[in-house]
């Protein structure tokens, strides 16, 4: 399974840049493998992302903004969903991955199942 994070390398928005870096930095720190897909430099990436974000996750007007997160082709969420999962120690579940043994998330899952 490959986590794909759709980003915009040349975004003029500092908020978008910060959110992208937050997601990528977290994945790197946790050693979770991922691919960056640049929607600014590659029209195919932009088209694919726009077509594969579900209707109920799109903004009322305009296009979905990066970062958008997928596991292979399965949509996992945007920055807000990622942030909420991180705050709840549920990032692996959010990404559709199994938490590493001994991780905080694995401990939380074990407690919930007990």
UniProtKB/TrEMBL annotation:
Do you know which InterPro entries this protein is assigned to? Glut_rich_SH3-bd, SH3BGR, Thioredoxin-like_sf
Q: Does the keyword Magnesium apply?
A: no
Q: Which Pfam families match?
A: SH3BGR
Location of this chain's protein in the cell: Cell membrane; Cytoplasm, Cytosol
Going by the UniProt record, its keywords in alphabetical order are: Cell membrane, Cytoplasm, Membrane, SH3-binding
Predominant localisation class: membrane
Source domain of life is Eukaryota
**What does the protein in this record do?**
Appears to function as an adapter protein that bridges proteins together or proteins with mRNAs. May function as a ubiquitin ligase-substrate adapter. Additionally, associates with translating cytoplasmic ribosomes and may promote the expression of specific mRNAs.
Family designation: Belongs to the SH3BGR family.
Describe its partners and assembly state. Monomer. Interacts with PFN1/Profilin-1. Interacts with ERBB2. Interacts with ATG12. Interacts with BECN1. Interacts with translating ribosomes.
Name under which the protein is recorded? SH3 domain-binding glutamic acid-rich-like protein
Source organism per UniProt? Saguinus oedipus
Which gene codes for it?
SH3BGRL_3
